[in-house]
Amino acid sequence: MHVHETEFVIFDVETTGLEPLRGDRIIEIAAKKVKNRKVVDVFESFINPKRDIPLEAQQINKITPGMIAGAPTHDIVLPQMMQFIGNACLVGHNIGFDLKFLCYELSLLGRRLNDATPAIDTLKMAKKFVPQLTSHRLQSVALFLGVTVKQTHRALADVELTNSILSHLLYMAEAQKVTTLKQVIDEFSVLKPVFKIERVDQELLF
Questions:
Q1: Is 52 part of any domain?
Q2: Which of 35-44, 147-156, 168-177 has the lowest mean pLDDT?
Q3: Catalytic site residues?
Q4: CB neighbours of 13 closer than 8 A, spacing ≥ 6?
């Protein structure tokens, strides 16, 4: 399959911290479904983590406790996200971070991503195609590629930036004869983490 014909789901999460195994949770998730370079669907939701949001996290993503107080919990949102993903190829910038949280939260529900679902990292693509950059953070790559940066560290804003740089990077890949989904997966995919939860605290089951 030519890479342009691929259905991509570009996604991003905002969290209470960096480590799900230490109690950090997703508080916002967003995704865009893209095919033939056109956005065909959008998914976005706050998630009530049933825990405090540290001030450090609030300072980064500007998500306050009041914003998520009435939001649905992960057992409502994540099945919707799974349905949204369907059979698409996942994409994210430094996607390993987002996958770590998504897979952990799914494991709490006794679910996991489909083994056949590929996960492409635009960070790996950027390091390959724009190696001259000293920083390959999302904002840095976007600015280098001429993409306007209006907001960062919010899920949908980061998804929009990632979608824009993905389009540029796929053109660069095509110029180097990387044109099929298989080629992109072989070079730029990452492994999906697997969490085996022996015992789930009842308070996490909501």
A1: yes
A2: 147-156
A3: 153
A4: 26, 28, 29, 98, 101, 102, 155
Q: What is the spatial distance between Cα 56 and Cα 79, in angstroms, rounded to a whole number?
A: 29
Whole-structure pTM value: 0.92
Domain span at residue 146 reads 3-191
Tell me the three state secondary structure of residue 58: helix
Q: Which residue spans within the chain are E strands per DSSP?
A: 7-15, 26-35, 38-46, 89-92, 119-121
pLDDT of residue 56: 95
Question: Are residues 159 and 30 in contact, defined by beta-carbon separation less than 8 angstroms?
Answer: yes
Residue 205: inside a domain: no
State the Cα–Cα distance between residues 59 and 91, nearest whole angstrom. 26
Does residue 63 sit within a domain? yes
What's the structural domain count of the chain? 1
Rounded CA separation 174/171 (Å): 5
Amino acid letter, 130: V
